[in-house]
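Subject: design request, 124 residues
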Protein backbone atom coordinates (compact mmCIF):
# COMPACT_ATOMS: atom_id res chain seq x y z
CA UNK A 1 0.00 0.00 0.00
CA UNK A 2 1.25 3.49 -0.85
CA UNK A 3 0.81 6.41 1.54
CA UNK A 4 0.53 10.03 0.41
CA UNK A 5 -0.03 13.22 2.33
CA UNK A 6 -3.07 15.04 0.95
CA UNK A 7 -5.87 17.30 2.23
CA UNK A 8 -9.14 15.68 3.23
CA UNK A 9 -11.29 16.89 0.29
CA UNK A 10 -8.80 15.52 -2.25
CA UNK A 11 -8.99 12.00 -0.82
CA UNK A 12 -12.14 11.06 -2.77
CA UNK A 13 -10.86 12.61 -5.98
CA UNK A 14 -7.61 10.68 -5.90
CA UNK A 15 -9.33 7.40 -5.11
CA UNK A 16 -11.54 7.84 -8.21
CA UNK A 17 -8.47 7.93 -10.48
CA UNK A 18 -8.50 4.71 -12.49
CA UNK A 19 -4.77 3.96 -12.12
CA UNK A 20 -4.65 4.53 -8.37
CA UNK A 21 -4.81 1.64 -5.90
CA UNK A 22 -6.34 1.99 -2.44
CA UNK A 23 -4.42 4.65 -0.57
CA UNK A 24 -3.63 5.18 3.07
CA UNK A 25 -4.09 8.89 3.69
CA UNK A 26 -2.45 11.35 6.10
CA UNK A 27 -3.79 14.89 6.03
CA UNK A 28 -1.67 17.99 5.42
CA UNK A 29 -2.01 21.66 4.64
CA UNK A 30 0.66 22.35 2.03
CA UNK A 31 -0.15 22.82 -1.65
CA UNK A 32 3.21 21.38 -2.70
CA UNK A 33 2.54 18.09 -0.91
CA UNK A 34 -0.86 17.83 -2.61
CA UNK A 35 0.58 18.39 -6.08
CA UNK A 36 3.31 15.82 -5.48
CA UNK A 37 0.83 13.23 -4.18
CA UNK A 38 -1.44 13.64 -7.19
CA UNK A 39 1.49 13.37 -9.61
CA UNK A 40 2.84 10.28 -7.84
CA UNK A 41 -0.62 8.70 -7.83
CA UNK A 42 -1.00 9.21 -11.58
CA UNK A 43 2.17 7.27 -12.32
CA UNK A 44 1.72 4.47 -9.79
CA UNK A 45 3.00 1.13 -11.09
CA UNK A 46 4.02 2.77 -14.38
CA UNK A 47 0.42 3.32 -15.46
CA UNK A 48 0.42 7.01 -16.33
CA UNK A 49 -3.05 8.50 -16.67
CA UNK A 50 -3.39 11.09 -19.43
CA UNK A 51 -5.58 13.82 -18.02
CA UNK A 52 -7.05 16.98 -19.48
CA UNK A 53 -7.68 20.28 -17.77
CA UNK A 54 -10.64 22.48 -18.63
CA UNK A 55 -12.20 25.68 -17.39
CA UNK A 56 -15.99 25.80 -17.19
CA UNK A 57 -17.82 29.09 -16.66
CA UNK A 58 -20.82 28.75 -14.34
CA UNK A 59 -23.43 31.43 -14.85
CA UNK A 60 -25.23 33.06 -11.90
CA UNK A 61 -23.14 31.22 -9.33
CA UNK A 62 -22.66 34.31 -7.20
CA UNK A 63 -20.01 35.06 -4.62
CA UNK A 64 -21.57 33.01 -1.82
CA UNK A 65 -19.70 29.79 -1.14
CA UNK A 66 -22.79 27.52 -0.94
CA UNK A 67 -23.33 27.27 -4.68
CA UNK A 68 -19.63 26.80 -5.36
CA UNK A 69 -19.45 23.95 -2.87
CA UNK A 70 -22.52 22.30 -4.41
CA UNK A 71 -21.01 22.50 -7.90
CA UNK A 72 -17.62 21.32 -6.67
CA UNK A 73 -19.16 18.27 -5.00
CA UNK A 74 -21.25 17.45 -8.07
CA UNK A 75 -18.20 17.59 -10.34
CA UNK A 76 -16.09 15.56 -7.90
CA UNK A 77 -18.68 12.75 -8.02
CA UNK A 78 -18.36 12.36 -11.79
CA UNK A 79 -16.31 9.21 -12.50
CA UNK A 80 -12.98 10.14 -14.08
CA UNK A 81 -12.67 13.56 -12.44
CA UNK A 82 -9.26 13.79 -10.81
CA UNK A 83 -9.30 17.30 -9.38
CA UNK A 84 -11.82 20.13 -9.21
CA UNK A 85 -11.85 23.66 -7.82
CA UNK A 86 -14.70 26.16 -8.12
CA UNK A 87 -13.98 29.87 -7.67
CA UNK A 88 -17.24 31.62 -6.71
CA UNK A 89 -15.82 35.12 -7.27
CA UNK A 90 -15.04 34.45 -10.94
CA UNK A 91 -17.90 31.93 -11.41
CA UNK A 92 -15.44 29.44 -12.83
CA UNK A 93 -14.73 25.74 -12.31
CA UNK A 94 -11.27 24.33 -12.96
CA UNK A 95 -11.48 20.61 -13.66
CA UNK A 96 -8.88 17.95 -14.36
CA UNK A 97 -10.29 14.67 -15.66
CA UNK A 98 -9.40 11.42 -17.40
CA UNK A 99 -10.82 11.61 -20.96
CA UNK A 100 -10.72 7.80 -21.21
CA UNK A 101 -13.39 7.70 -18.49
CA UNK A 102 -15.49 10.85 -18.94
CA UNK A 103 -16.16 13.43 -21.64
CA UNK A 104 -16.37 17.19 -21.13
CA UNK A 105 -20.10 17.13 -21.91
CA UNK A 106 -20.71 15.09 -18.73
CA UNK A 107 -19.03 17.83 -16.70
CA UNK A 108 -21.52 20.37 -18.06
CA UNK A 109 -24.39 17.96 -17.34
CA UNK A 110 -23.23 17.57 -13.72
CA UNK A 111 -23.27 21.35 -13.23
CA UNK A 112 -26.71 21.65 -14.78
CA UNK A 113 -28.08 18.79 -12.64
CA UNK A 114 -27.48 20.88 -9.52
CA UNK A 115 -29.32 23.90 -10.95
CA UNK A 116 -26.68 26.08 -12.59
CA UNK A 117 -26.05 26.93 -16.24
CA UNK A 118 -22.61 26.01 -17.50
CA UNK A 119 -20.66 27.31 -20.46
CA UNK A 120 -18.74 25.17 -22.93
CA UNK A 121 -15.57 23.66 -21.37
CA UNK A 122 -12.40 25.46 -22.52
CA UNK A 123 -9.10 23.55 -22.59
CA UNK A 124 -6.35 25.10 -20.48
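Subject: RE: design request

Done. Sequence follows.
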Amino acid sequence: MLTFTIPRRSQQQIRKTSAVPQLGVRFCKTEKAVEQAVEDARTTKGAAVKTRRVTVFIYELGCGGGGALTVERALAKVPGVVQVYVNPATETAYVEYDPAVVGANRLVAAVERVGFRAGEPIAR
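The chain has a mean pLDDT of 78.
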